[in-house]
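User: Earlier you gave me the apo prediction for this protein. Now I'd like the version with adenosine-5'-triphosphate bound, so I can compare the two side by side. Same sequence as before, with the ligand SMILES added.
Assistant: Got it. Here's the input I'm using:
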Amino acid sequence: MTDAVLTLAHLNKRFGALQATRDVTLDLRPGEIHALIGPNGAGKSTLIAQIAGSLKPDSGGIHLAGQEITSLSVAQRARLGLGRSFQVSSLAEPLTVLRNVMIATQALQGHSFRFWKPVHRDESLLTPATAALERMELTHRADTPVSELSHGERRQVEVACALALTPRVLLLDEPMAGLGPEGSARLTELLETLKHEVPILLVEHDMDAVFRLADRISVLVAGGVIAHGDSAAIRANPQVREAYLGD
Ligand SMILES: Nc1ncnc2c1ncn2[C@@H]1O[C@H](COP(=O)(O)OP(=O)(O)OP(=O)(O)O)[C@@H](O)[C@H]1O
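And here is the structure of the complex with adenosine-5'-triphosphate:
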């Protein structure tokens, strides 16, 4: 056995006749970025949804830090240390960066009945939110409304929201989407440092970012993993080149 923090074993998921996840087995180890790549419709988002808990697999198991989480709810998984960011932004535009991260923390902590205590004075939210902003190098933007941020900074805030609950693992679904070269380079740098604290399962179409960041890559085609290896091995794999890289 490895010392994996997250393990998927023989996951299967069908939507009617379509096998969206096909016997997927993979793991995420401390200190690494494991990238999941594949053409549109390969089943990457479906897999992330099963890990996060919004979709139940038909069969197979998911373990987080040695604990089986396959049938736990999204909130239970989040509390056990499954952090994630989303393809679609869920930030509140008029609120400040700090307030957004505090609200995300509060939502994930499941304390929806703390109305007697103003959010902005709650140390149990302020302390982790401030630390998460620092890790994403956003401290200087804490009091800026999200509406004034660049696209790249918003992505950093989204990752900070996930980090505020000090997750054991981080699921990032296309964090580079829509970023220009500068924003993408900046986020790449941040993730390169972050992985040493929190291992990252990364779904990403930006292949430059994937090849630079990933310690291991799994290639998903038609729901199944067709190849697995480091960047050099994946680049050189003829099956992958044919199925995905286009030559
Ligand atoms: N709720 C659903 N009901 C039926 N089919 C679905 C559902 N969700 C996804 N699918 C199908 O499952 C397949 C995998 O979709 P998925 O979104 O996981 O792919 P993906 O690799 O994330 O694609 P992309 O890179 O475009 O985001 C697709 O054929 C999709 O149409």
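For your comparison, keep in mind: The mean pLDDT is 90.
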